[in-house]
Amino acid sequence: MNEISTPNDLTSRLKNRLEADRKRIEETATRELRRLGESLSAVRSDALRSIEADTVEATGRMRELLMKAWLRPLVVGMSLFLGICGGSWATMHWLSRSIDTRIETLAEVGVRIVRARDTLAVLHETTWGIELVTINGDRYVSLPVRTPGRPGFTMDGRPYLKLSRE
């Protein structure tokens, strides 16, 4: 066989070799791009997981801060509410007892007044309207109106008798 090369042979060999190199470069580039894609996908997944974890952690801290921020005013408000309600209840309870006590005292005084009037009426009937009076250190007996006899003097239409001095 004759190993003489012609320009067409050289061109065809160069074409074949260029084609083989191109395929090899494409395959290598495809493999590297695939590896790079997988690596980027892993980096993306790690970054996404990291972002999600950081977001969850930040949300938890924010919830905790919000709870603390709302908890203090809530506790203060509830304390004020309970203090006002408790104080109002105690005041109303005290006032109610005070009013009840005064009503009972008023009722007792009313009963005493009625008894005293009854006693006074009985005394007035049993003494026939006679009263003992002291005027300027002298003692007098006030007789009922229209008493027969001579009174010492009259005042307010009633006769008076002077009693002896002691």
Brief overview:
The protein is of the alpha+beta class and 166 residues long. The chain is 72% helix and 11% strand.
Radius of gyration: 62 Å
Number of helices: 1
Helical content, roughly? over 70%
Please mark out the parts with pLDDT under 50 across 5 or more consecutive residues, or reply none. Answer: none
Q: What is the domain total for the residues?
A: 2
User: By helix and strand content, what is the structural category?
Assistant: alpha+beta
Number of strands: 4
User: Strand percentage, roughly?
Assistant: 5-15%
Strands of the biggest beta sheet: in what spatial order? 1-2-4-3
Give the N-terminus to C-terminus distance in angstroms.
188 Å
The helix-strand sequence is HEEEE
Rough outline: rod-shaped
Q: Major β-sheet, in short? A: 4 strands, antiparallel
Mean pLDDT: 87
Walk me through the structure.
By secondary structure, this protein is of the alpha+beta class. Helix content is 72%, strand content 11%. It has one helix and four strands, in the order H-E-E-E-E. The chain has one helix spanning 7-126; strands at 131-135, 138-142, 153-155, 158-162. The protein has a four-stranded antiparallel β-sheet with strand order 1-2-4-3, with no helix packed on it. A hairpin with a 2-residue loop joins strand 3 and strand 4 (158-162). The model has no long low-confidence stretch (mean pLDDT 87).
